[in-house]
Amino acid sequence: MEKKIGEVLVRTFREVCEDSNSRARSDFSKISAKEIGQIESLLRNVDNPAFNLEDALRRHLKIAEE
């Protein structure tokens, strides 16, 4: 059985966000549950060969390609 990287990325991302939020000194510097959920939904698609994570993140973050 092939191991899926998407779920590993989601779990790692959540752990990093939770750690960051626990050290944040003010609420405005914390990552919201909504933001975490949105990025996690992108990361879950990584195993789909037709999915391009870089393009999806650029669209989500509204970053223009150079």
What can you tell me about this protein's structure?
The protein is an all-alpha fold and 66 residues long. It has a domain at 1-11 and 32-66. Helices cover 59% and strands 0% of the residues. The chain has three helices and no strands. The mean pLDDT is 90.
Quickly list its features.
single chain, 66 residues, mainly alpha, 59% helix, 0% strand, flat
Main β-sheet: number of strands, strand sense, barrel status? none
What is the rounded Rg? 14 Å
Number of helices: 3
Helix-strand string: HHH
Broad structural category: mainly alpha
Q: Which spans have pLDDT < 50 for at least 5 consecutive residues?
A: none
The strand count comes to 0
Distance between the termini: 39 Å
Averaged pLDDT:
90
Q: Report the sheet-strand fraction.
A: under 5%
The proportion of residues forming helix, as a percent range, comes to 55-70%
The dominant shape is flat
Reconstruct the topology from this structure:
Elements: H1 5-23, H2 33-43, H3 53-61
Helix pairs in contact: 1-2
Provide a short characterization of the protein structure.
By secondary structure, this protein is mostly helical.
